[in-house]
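Onboarding guide, step 5: your first structure request.
Type a short instruction followed by the sequence, for example:

Predict the 3D structure of this protein.
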Amino acid sequence: MAKENCPTPHNAAKYGEIAKTVIMSGDPLRAKFMAERYLEDYRQVTNVRGMMGFTGKYKGQEISVMGHGMGIPSIGIYTYELFNFYDVERIIRLGSAGTFDDKMRIGDVLMAQGACTDSNYLAQYGLPGIWASIADFGLLRAAVEQAEKLGVRYQVGNILSSDVFYNPRNDQNHKWVKMGVKAVEMEAVALYANAAYAGKKALCMCTISDNVNTGEALSAEDRQLCMTNMMDVAFNMI
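The system replies with structure tokens like these:
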């Protein structure tokens, strides 16, 4: 079935042109940066709607990098197709997140062990209860091991995948903190749900780029450095 569905309306790659492991970022230009920085003999395999994807080799292993856009619906489409049509086995999302937990430091890498959400995305499954969206433990363990080996500062914990970026109810953030949620981003829950439904593996890692409470934020230069630290973890854990 997978071959019959490729290419898709959102992905120009032919079946077999995307590796079993895909490292993704919201920004397609960051995917291009990863291809240029980490991959040998890479080639562009898709650019539909400017959502660039590349396949090459890192230390002899074939890996693809690709953008997924912003928000749950966008990553939901791209990762569903990768898992179900292109037979991708594992996806690692690398992104940024804002923390509302003052115990987290700007520049920390948060490995999302679980993902809470204010989205209705999970309603599609018709489950008779609330499903707990969690990362693949093998990927999570490998990420922790590499972060410690490389000396990258990290934390492991729960993240909030929100549908809202400009939230008029920021006064509610303390309720998430009370439940141990460390930061907010906009994609992880859809990635984890799609992986679970397809029987595949997924992990979301985010660099803490700003503090929602204090307004503290990484400079453009520091953001690039911290993102590169996170990328080093991802590429070396495969």
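Each response can be followed by summary notes, for example: Residues 220-237 form the longest helix (18 residues).
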